[in-house]
Amino acid sequence: MTITTRPRALARSRPHRVTRPTWEEPRAPLEAGARAIVLFVMAALIVVPLYIVVLTSFSSQATITAAGGMVIVPGELTFSAYEQILSGGVVTRAVLVSVGITGVGTAISLVVSVMAAYGLSRPGSFAHRPILFFLLITMFFGAGMIPSYLLVSNLGLINSYWSLILPSCISVFNIFLMRGFFMGIDQSILDSARIDGAGDWRILTKMVLPMSRSVITVIGLFYGVGYWNAFFNATLYINDSEKLPLQVILRSYVLQGVSVPGQVSVGSGEVATLAVQMAVVIIALVPVLIIYPFLQKHISSGVMIGAVKG
Amino acid sequence: MSIQTASSDLRAFAKKPLNRRSFLGFVGAGAATAALAGCSTGTASTSGGLFSAEDIAGVIPNYYPVDFAVPDLVSVEGSTAGYLKLPTVLRKSVAKVPGSGGSYTALTPAWWTIPSSDNSYFKAVNKELGTTIKFQVSDGNTYGEKIQAVLASPNNVPDMVVIPSWNLPPKFDQAVTSLFADLSPYLAGDKVKDYPNLANIPTDSWKFSVFQGKLFGLPYPGEVIQNAFFYRKDIFDELGLPLPTDAESFIEILTEATDTSKNRWGSDDLWNAGQIMFGVPDKWTVIDGKLVHKFETDQYREALDWLTRLFKSGAVHPDAMAGNDQQANSRYEAGNTLVKSDGVGGWAESLARVLPSNPAYNTQAMDFFAADGGDPTLYKGSPTNIFSFINKKADEKAIKEMLAVADFIAAPFGTAEYQLLNSGVEGTHYDLDANGAPVLNAKGQAEVTSTYSFLVHPPVVQAHVEYPQFVTDYCNWSARMSAFAADPVLYGVQIQEPAKFGSLSKPFDDLKADVANGRKDLSALDDAIATWKSSGGNDLRKFYQKYLDA
Amino acid sequence: MTVLDERRPTPEAPPADPATLKAAAVRKRQKRRALFRRDRTLLLMVLPALLLTALFAYVPIVGNAIAFQDYSPYVGAFENPWVGFANFERVLADEAFWSAVRNTLTITAFQLVFFFPVPIMLAILLQGLLSPRVRSLFQSIVYLPHFLSWVIVISIFQQILGGAGLLNQFLRDNGIEAVNLMTQPDTFLILVTSQALWKDAGWGIIVFLAALSAIDPSQYEAAAMDGAGRRKRMWHITLPALRPIIILLLILRLGDSLTVGFEQLLLQRDAVGAGAAEVLDTFVYYSGIQNGDWSYAAAAGLIKGVISVILVLGANKLAHLFGEAGVYQKS
Lengths: 310, 550, 331
What we know:
Chain A is an all-alpha fold and 310 residues long.
């Protein structure tokens, strides 16, 4: 697999027709039809349940009771589930916490991973095998919860935001994956640069990185999602509720309305528990939905088959 | 993202169904009991040094009940007392401000929205207390893990730690003596007179808080009967269905009620209350002087057989048969099932959820009957469901301050303190409705949650004055059932099983699912019992025998 | 993929006398030092990752030594009694453990055949789509289920395929007997894989889209000019280009495979019975973790780790046989 420098993604400011490259033969209608069906069915299989989740989140208790659970046919709609969750400022603060942790964490993880992946991607480099083995082994043997807690405690990181970043900073899987992509780069280009006297830092920053936009985006996405979704480490290491990230807060809504014997007043029954649970799911999805389209074009940045000429 | 974190995430999250069952048995939004779930009902310890009843009696407080509001429905044989209206005047039970400016951290679970630390509710209560309690509120579903980690790291143990009885970690006997303060010097016997509200807590609850022969825990008392069959009286009446009187007619009635074309099944999974109906003990019973475990009893076998026939009859909702008890309440409230097995706490919540949109909703607890139609054999529920402990590092002055604070928090129903703790400040958090009952407003619902109440709690009463009919139904039912309640073996004795016995009961949970669904025959129970005996059951018996003989 | 292997210097013919041996050794050392000097910067780049791994991964892994103890968290680390292999014996003697291993390997193998190729095929299918708008629309929908928790996913499946679900309502309305697809232990494998596909197939295509985008289109053009049809182009250009990444992912996933579907299977355990749904992680959970029997859990974890290492190294060696670099290779 060789990678050459690619054309930049073109601005789609002027209207154009998407045309097939001249060398590509037209698709047989049967094939095109079959493909369309497969993709459509798959999309439908996914959209329909998601629609049910969204609908249920906007349904009132009466509608949910009548439907006996998840709502398929729209009935009475209400924003009350979202109102309940989003009022009070708790969720807003948690979003900020999560965004901060994800942003900082992903940046650190990417930097460390890119360096490590590149540092291990030169065939035959010194000690690369033992180092790879060293990293690989950690994938198989997990650390226990209590030893991890004690370690974080001894480092003085309990109740600190860093406890949510540093321990999970490295994903060996991601490093190996990135290394795989780096090794796919035509080594002859890098070698000739080395012969010309370029140091490894320059090769990394000036040559490898620009060529690796898509894999960096993908790995960044993997790390970002990891930080964004993590909640158990926060439950374990964080004591102050101000510092709790979004997932922890959202999960605590799932049992809304549970009361304890002896409590004089009970939560109102107007907001359906199921609606709240579904609303929680949707709220957690929204940031991802926003970010992903921006990343999409970087992932496929490269040669776009059938792209516009220009 | 480290893989370990991922699996811990999954493990912890997936713990939800199990912890939910146990907690909800107490609170009642699910379908199991703390007692029957086979999770450590009894907990705490000791491999050496058994303590006699006299030893234990010597370290617990004496009982001096106080009354601030005469209940409309009086407690009968330990049943839950009920109030149909609020007392017009709320008196203060604690004359002076308990605290002296100290500041303490407290770790506590929450099965609901985690409140922010500096809200007006905390400010108001802390002001009344004269002390600042800073809560570290942690997700109740993963609380077991959190406790294990925190207790393993003594520097991180806060001043007060709340531990529900089902989250007491294994080897807690070692932890409790090395991490927490012995409270007997402050509370034993008549010393408790300094803390009149604590003296109001029943003796059984205190007894259960004795670990290693010393008093360590502050209790949250439990109710005598904690589980029931609930049925949709409104639909039963509509269909003209009679109430069952024995196990066989139960199945018949449920089958008759099932009409799949209307999306209606007779019942949800009735295993927990079903075992109660057959008189299955929580853990042990004594037959001819020997300890017999519940799995070995004939009652257990009959209960399982009954459940299998119930499942086979087609009267049970398919999702319930598939083990989905998270949606049990949704199914019940939608009328897709007519009978469910649940903790008693679920009753009031259910009303709160459904009445606004379905005023005809009428859910009632069935009176228990024995499987053959006679009087039921009921066993008392756990006398304490939640404990809190005080850090050993606290000095005498600090402990006394914390106990004074606990005294305030244990103020019973009818006092100004109780109102403050449970509803917040009038006008800010709640308003009084026509009956004089506090109704939480939006701010109240967000801020007023059970935090202080987990540190210690007065005896439980039924005070949902907004639903007076419910209070009447509940307390009368509780009174009727309490008449049948007997002490289970080793009632109220705090015992902790060694960790190696912990997984002995899991195969029976799996067996129940397999047999009831027809994947295995009832005869598989014999194999399971034999395996249980040889892989630790007999040792477990010997372990408990020591306590019986003590 | 053309990976330039730097060949080791061919070893010299076995020398006869010690002087030549010594000279050879000296040369080898010099070569190694030269290599070190050359790759100094590379090693510096790897250093942060190594330090973080050593600190946050290895230090807690040492904690697995409790597998050889009768561990109590409240007693100092070194004061716990050592029990040798007793915990391991307990694990290996448990019939349920082996049943769990069997299930785990079965599910892994099944998913290897029926789950693993799907994202690849989808990615290729997608890449051939003409309209970028349809492509990105599809892409932005299809990865979403990855973010739903298993609780929701199973709930949705139950809503549709369960005994009281849509499918059965439809069947009953038409006089056909209802069948509960969620509680059949015999077809559980298919159900589990379908759930995994629904949840993660869309997410899985992302990596392959990135890999596909790296292929130089002029290759396709040249091949088309030479008369290669669509199928030939895929076989000779696309797939070989994807091969290294596919193999890498395969091996890495194998290493992960013993952790297959913990939450997913936990939630359906009662529905199909432990016989079909017990995997290593649920076994460890119920037998060890839930009761705080940390030594047991650690022992089981170590056993699992050893099996995983064997699987991965074995797969890596297999990959080498096929001429692929695999996860890493000697050179």
